[in-house]
Write a structure and sequence with these properties.
By secondary structure, the chain is mainly alpha-helical. The chain has one domain (25-101). It contains five helices and no strands. Helix 1 (2-10) packs across helix 5 (91-101) and helix 2 (35-50) packs across helix 5. The longest helix is centred in the middle third of the chain and has 16 residues, at 35-50. It is globular and about 35 Å long.
């Protein structure tokens, strides 16, 4: 059930635009979960827990907020985007995100 919950959770992800300035994603299949992907999953989950409490007058502000959160943990937007896109093809990444998010928002 945790994986199914993560899939529902992932459907609400934001800031997924195709801005050329952000670079192109390289989708790989069956990417293995590791320490870096866990850092990304934790940053994404924390963002999802607080995003509904924020107001963004411009769509670009959503991306700026994401980039600030990622920068704080040493992750680039392109690295996050690759991770985000690979969730569709990597059960390990989905399982890791489900594991990170199973405690729920605090």
């Amino acid at each position: 059930m945790a994986v199914a919950g993560a899939v529902v959770f992932l459907s609400a992800l934001t800031a997924c635009g195709n801005s050329g300035a952000l670079g192109k994603s390289a989708i790989l299949r069956n990417v293995k979960a590791d320490a870096q992907t866990r850092i990304i999953a934790e940053a994404e989950f924390k963002r999802q827990c607080t995003i509904d409490q924020q107001s963004f007058p411009r769509e670009a502000d959503i991306t700026k907020d994401l980039d600030n959160r990622l920068g704080a943990v040493g992750i680039s937007h392109l690295t996050w985007k690759n991770w985000h896109d690979q969730l569709a093809t990597s059960p390990e990444l989905v399982k890791q995100l489900a594991d990170v998010s199973k405690a729920g928002c605090s």
